[in-house]
């Protein structure tokens, strides 16, 4: 089948127990823009918040489902264990190190563990995050930070970087990445924990940090029990609907159970789980978040896809008010 390469990360979707504090952290502390305040289309009683660059360009979205009574995450294998966010250069990391110190954000300082300058840090719920410098990066271009962000544009987050998968059987996931999704294995780096296998790096499309998956095998941990501060799934970029329908056929031909074509309104999707149980999504680059809101007012009001509009009154009645017009 004549498939085009996946283009890298599209978005990462995680869990929060508190939409208001989540909004405060990701907009006020990290300086991302809330580009869409919507609902979980599979459970309309909870918010789905989309943070990104100035207009939600594909490859820049970090999204959250609010699960108000979610318990804490018990970290372990078969999970998306680290989400990286890109900044332009090493100077930006110095800005962020000082900012985190001033704002009391838990972080590990600047390191070069993955082969790039980076800072590992956690949000208020223990969400595992990393800022990574694009100083020497080549490959997929980043986005454009929002001019009205509290973070100066030159230091702003420009998109998603490498996503780390921690699994109990790395070869199973590697086979899906290479034989099904068309990734290529490019290098390895030292494990985070001594005595563990090296972490394997896979990339797709133009490559670079916005198109990398880091695969970590751990046999010393139990399987992760997700909760607040965990990641639900990672999505990879597909050019358009025509290409996505080819991927639906391709994934099905590999006898992988999958969702088939799913209409998400802001993009179109396909979901399936790799053998270690991690949920993968393929998502189209468009139509995008300006489909139902103009650029200047993204994320200010509750946006519902047209197929939920008739239920707006009952949906809004179940949601705790969240003021995002500041």
Compute the number of strand runs: 16
Major sheet: size, sense and barrel closure? 8 strands, mixed
CATH level 3 topology:
2,3-Dihydroxybiphenyl 1,2-Dioxygenase, domain 1
CATH class: Alpha Beta
- Supply the CATH architecture: Roll
List the secondary-structure elements in sequence, H or E: EHEEEEHEEEEHEEEEHEEEH
The helix content, as a percent range, equals 10-25%
Shape: globular
Helix/strand-derived class? alpha+beta
Number of domains: 1
Mean pLDDT, rounded to whole units?
Answer: 97
For this structure, what is the CATH homologous superfamily? 2,3-Dihydroxybiphenyl 1,2-Dioxygenase, domain 1
Percent of residues in beta strands: 25-35%
Give the termini separation.
49 Å
Strand order of the largest sheet: 2-3-4-1-13-16-15-14
- List segments where confidence is low: pLDDT < 50 over at least 5 consecutive residues: none
Write the layout of secondary structure elements.
Elements: E1 9-16, H1 19-29, E2 33-40, E3 43-52, E4 61-66, E5 79-87, H2 90-103, E6 107-111, E7 118-122, E8 128-133, E9 159-167, H3 170-180, E10 184-189, E11 199-203, E12 212-217, E13 231-238, H4 241-253, E14 262-263, E15 267-273, E16 279-287, H5 312-318
Parallel strand pairs: 1-4, 5-8, 9-12, 13-16
Antiparallel strand pairs: 1-13, 2-3, 3-4, 5-9, 6-7, 7-8, 10-11, 11-12, 14-15, 15-16
Main attributes of the structure:
326 residues, 2,3-Dihydroxybiphenyl 1,2-Dioxygenase, domain 1, 8-stranded mixed beta sheet, 5 helices, 16 strands
What does this protein look like?
This protein is an alpha+beta fold and 326 residues long. It has a single domain, classed as 2,3-Dihydroxybiphenyl 1,2-Dioxygenase, domain 1 (Roll). 17% of the residues lie in helices and 33% in strands. It is built from 5 helices and 16 strands. It has helices spanning 19-29, 90-103, 170-180, 241-253, 312-318; strands at 9-16, 33-40, 43-52, 61-66, 79-87, 107-111, 118-122, 128-133, 159-167, 184-189, 199-203, 212-217, 231-238, 262-263, 267-273, 279-287. An 8-stranded mixed beta sheet has the order 2-3-4-1-13-16-15-14. An 8-stranded mixed beta sheet has the order 6-7-8-5-9-12-11-10, with helices on one face. β6 (107-111) and β7 form a beta hairpin. The termini are far apart. The model has no long low-confidence stretch (mean pLDDT 97).
């Amino acid at each position: 089948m004549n498939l085009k390469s996946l283009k890298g990360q599209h978005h990462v979707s995680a869990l929060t127990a508190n939409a208001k504090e989540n909004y405060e952290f990701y907009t006020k502390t990290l300086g991302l823009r809330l580009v869409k305040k919507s609902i979980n289309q599979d459970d309309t009683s909870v918010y789905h918040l989309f943070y990104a660059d100035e207009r939600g360009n594909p490859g820049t979205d970090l999204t959250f489902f609010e699960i108000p009574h979610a318990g804490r995450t018990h970290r372990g294998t078969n999970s998306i264990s680290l989400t990286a966010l890109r900044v332009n250069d090493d100077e930006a990391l110095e800005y962020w190190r000082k900012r985190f110190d001033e704002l009391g954000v838990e972080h590990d300082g600047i390191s070069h563990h993955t082969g790039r300058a980076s800072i590992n840090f956690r949000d208020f719920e223990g969400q595992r995050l990393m800022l990574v410098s694009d100083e020497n990066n080549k490959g997929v271009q980043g986005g454009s930070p929002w001019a009205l962000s509290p973070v100066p544009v030159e230091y702003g987050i420009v998109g998603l970087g490498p996503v780390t998968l921690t699994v109990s059987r790395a070869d199973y996931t590697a086979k899906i990445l290479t034989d099904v999704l068309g990734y290529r294995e490019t290098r390895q780096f030292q494990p985070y924990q001594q005595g563990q296998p090296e972490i394997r790096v896979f990339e797709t499309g133009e490559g670079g940090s916005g198109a990398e998956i880091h695969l970590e095998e751990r046999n010393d941990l139990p399987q992760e029990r997700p909760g607040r501060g965990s990641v639900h799934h990672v999505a990879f970029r597909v050019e358009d609907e025509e290409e996505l329908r080819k991927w639906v056929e391709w994934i099905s031909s590999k006898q992988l159970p999958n969702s088939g074509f799913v209409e998400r309104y802001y993009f179109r999707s396909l979901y399936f789980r790799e053998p270690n149980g991690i949920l993968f999504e393929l998502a189209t680059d468009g139509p995008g978040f300006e489909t139902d809101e103009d650029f200047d007012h993204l994320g200010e009001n509750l946006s519902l896809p047209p197929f939920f509009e008739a239920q707006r009154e009952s949906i809004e009645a179940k949601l705790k008010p969240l003021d995002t017009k500041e």
